[in-house]
Every structure is written in structure tokens, then in C-alpha cells.
Specification:
Blueprint: E1 6-8, H1 12-18, H2 21-33, E2 36-37, H3 38-45, H4 49-61, E3 65-67, E4 78-81, E5 85-87, H5 96-123, H6 145-162
GO molecular function, one term: DNA binding
Keywords: DNA-binding
InterPro entries: ArsR-like_HTH, HTH_ArsR_DNA-bd_dom, WH-like_DNA-bd_sf, WH_DNA-bd_sf
Length: 198
């Protein structure tokens, strides 16, 4: 898939839309599972259709989702996530309100990821050959700030290499959840200013 357009998420109103629990769920569901109607979203997320309809309208008003008119029949409306490379403002450039919204988005995201991992573990016995498809790595690296940025961009380039639409995906493929979490190791007592090497 070609590089996706970058969208900087500095607008507080857009951040508030994504920091709302249900809207965040709807957006992530569309990103992960593809197009859906408000009724199918309501069923999958166990909420009423009025709530999903409103969430979709709010997400659409900020350009996060769009209608898929060719899939609709009659009054049925299908929605899909708008594919973008969404970027948050660097932490040092966020004002207090932005910081609060980003913190909430990250909290929601981490909680949803843990729920998804638990669901996978529960469904794993029925997944056949995919049951063992769980590469796992816990590492630490020693880098400068510039190198960390380069590391992140290389990771994104690798992910983009495998991002495909349903039409582009090879036979036998399925959606796999990938996450990268990187942060400076917290100091321990006695570390001083210089963390240990290695």
C-alpha cells in the first residue's frame, strides 16, 4: 500500500472526538475490521444504534470516517475509517488540554489492546494454524533522541509495507494486530543522571 497521507492531530476538537470511549471504539473497530453499518457496530460493541449513529456522525465531521456509498442499499449506510498516518503533537508541544486528551486516548488504547489480547487468548484454540502466530519480543535499546525517531519511522515504513486492502491482500491472509510501545526506562534509585549501558 502506498504511503498514507500524514494527518497531524493538533486540533483539540478532533482529539476530544477520539478521546471519547465509544467514538474511539467505533473508529478502532472500523480500522481493524473494515466497513460497517451503525447497526452492525451496535451489535458488535453491545450498544444501541442511536449511540453508534451519533459516534459515526461525530467521527465523520472531523474526517476520521467516511461513507461507503457503493455498499449501501436503501437507507442502509456503510462507513469506513479514513486511512491516514495519524500523528500526535510531540509531548513537549502539547498544551494542558491536548495533553489530557492524548493521555485519555492512550489510556483507552492500551485498555482496548489488553481486551483484544484476552479475546485472542480465549479464541486461540479455535484458530487452527493461526493459534501460534504470536511473535513476541521485549527488548531495550540504547539510542539518542534522533535515533529513536529514526527507529520509529523505520518501524512505520515496515508496517506500511504490509498494510493492504482486502482486494490487495494475498489469499490466506488475515488481519494481525501490531503495536509498538517505546519509552525511556525509568530511573531507579542510585542511577543518577546516566542510565547504565546495555
Amino acid at each position: 500500500m502506498p504511503d498514507q497521507p500524514i494527518r497531524e492531530l493538533g486540533d483539540l476538537r478532533a482529539l476530544k472526538v477520539l478521546a471519547h470511549p465509544l467514538r474511539n471504539q467505533v473508529f478502532e473497530h472500523l480500522r481493524l475490521h473494515g466497513p460497517a453499518t451503525s447497526a452492525s457496530l451496535a451489535r458488535d460493541l453491545d450498544v444501541n444504534t442511536g449511540a453508534t449513529s451519533y459516534a459515526l456522525r461525530m467521527l465523520a465531521s472531523h474526517g476520521f470516517v467516511e461513507e461507503v456509498p457503493e455498499r449501501g442499499r436503501g437507507r442502509e449506510r456503510w462507513w469506513q475509517a479514513v486511512r491516514r498516518d495519524y500523528r500526535l503533537p510531540p509531548p513537549g508541544q502539547r498544551d494542558p488540554a491536548q495533553r489530557a486528551m492524548v493521555d485519555e486516548m492512550q489510556r483507552l488504547g492500551l485498555a482496548a489492546d489488553l481486551d483484544m489480547l484476552a479475546a485472542f487468548q480465549q479464541q486461540r484454540p479455535a484458530m487452527g494454524e493461526w493459534a501460534d502466530a504470536t511473535p513476541f519480543s521485549r527488548s531495550s535499546i540504547r539510542v539518542t533522541l534522533a535515533e529513536l525517531e529514526e527507529f520509529f519511522e523505520e518501524y512505520l515504513a515496515l508496517v506500511r509495507r504490509y498494510m493492504r486492502t482486502d482486494e490487495e491482500a494475498p489469499e490466506g491472509s488475515r488481519t494481525v494486530v501490531t503495536r509498538l510501545l517505546a519509552f525511556p526506562a525509568p530511573d531507579t534509585e542510585g542511577d543518577g543522571d546516566e542510565p547504565p549501558s546495555g
